[in-house]
């Protein structure tokens, strides 16, 4: 049985709560310090009739569309989701024809390109894009209409309790799911974690891209998920816990 460890989750809600529950099921204790908060934008959405499909790179886009009461007119469109979790949430909202890519933007581009769609793709997105879907699909002869429907607003400070725990070395590891979250943490947490401690504090990252800002700020113990998914992150967290505490 895995002894109880303590980790820090930096992803936004409601995903942070879901991750905390999954870690608890693995007998890993976790605190939550979301470094971004989603805000739905007052978006002017184009008419759904003009599109052959919908592309999704985040569940946050679905949540924003739901808050904008915009899902009903889109449910008859094929949905191309970046990964299984986003695909699952699309099905939960009543989308019937949902195709999941392999968790990365590149895999989503390939999946859409191979579908040989006969019209433009609607891409409800975040205000801060980590990749350019329209640019990536242009060589395949596909037009993508990108409409920002939400913004992830960065926190301006760490919660005092979390900052204190970081300074005290309370956490056995920190989980990071996006490059922007990692960048925000480096900006806010630098004073709480001196450089010598950064070299010893393990960071569990969804991908190399997510880890890059942490490496630049001298976090040396970087663990990378073998697939950009929550299942892979949980498997990595469990393997790390067992390595530290024994089976």
UniProtKB/TrEMBL annotation:
Function according to Swiss-Prot or TrEMBL: Catalyzes cyclization of the linear tetrapyrrole, hydroxymethylbilane, to the macrocyclic uroporphyrinogen III.
Single GO BP term: uroporphyrinogen III biosynthetic process
Record's keyword terms, sorted: Lyase, Porphyrin biosynthesis
Pathway noted in the entry: Porphyrin-containing compound metabolism; protoporphyrin-IX biosynthesis; coproporphyrinogen-III from 5-aminolevulinate: step 3/4
GO MF entries: uroporphyrinogen-III synthase activity
Name this polypeptide is given: Uroporphyrinogen-III synthase
Enzymatic reactions: hydroxymethylbilane = uroporphyrinogen III + H2O
Pfam families in UniProt: HEM4 (PF02602)
Superkingdom of this protein's organism: Bacteria
EC number in record: 4.2.1.75
Enzyme class: lyase
Assigned protein family: Belongs to the uroporphyrinogen-III synthase family.
The Tetrapyrrole biosynthesis uroporphyrinogen III synthase domain, residue ranges: 19-234
Xref: PANTHER family: UROPORPHYRINOGEN-III SYNTHASE, CHLOROPLASTIC
Gene3D superfamilies to which the protein is assigned, alphabetical: 3.40.50.10090
